[in-house]
Amino acid sequence: MSQQSTTRADIHVDGWIALQTDLGKAPNTVAAYARGITDFAAFCRVQGVDPLDVRRGIIAAYLADLHTRPPGGGYAGQVGSLPASPRQPSNASLRHRLTIIRLFYDHLVEEGVRATNPVARGRRGAFDGGRHRGERGLVRVHRVLPWIPSEGQWGAILKAARTEPVRNRLMLALAYDCALRREELCALDTSDMDPSHRLVTIRAETTKTKAGRVVPYSAVTGELLAAYLPERRTLSRARGPLFLSTSPRNRAMPISKWTWSKVVHALGSRAGEPKLGTHTMRHLCLTDLARVGWDIHEIARFAGHRSIQSTLLYIHLSARDLSAKFAATAAELHEARLASITDTPR
Question: What keywords is this UniProt entry annotated with (predicted)?
Answer without folding.
Answer: DNA integration, DNA recombination, DNA-binding
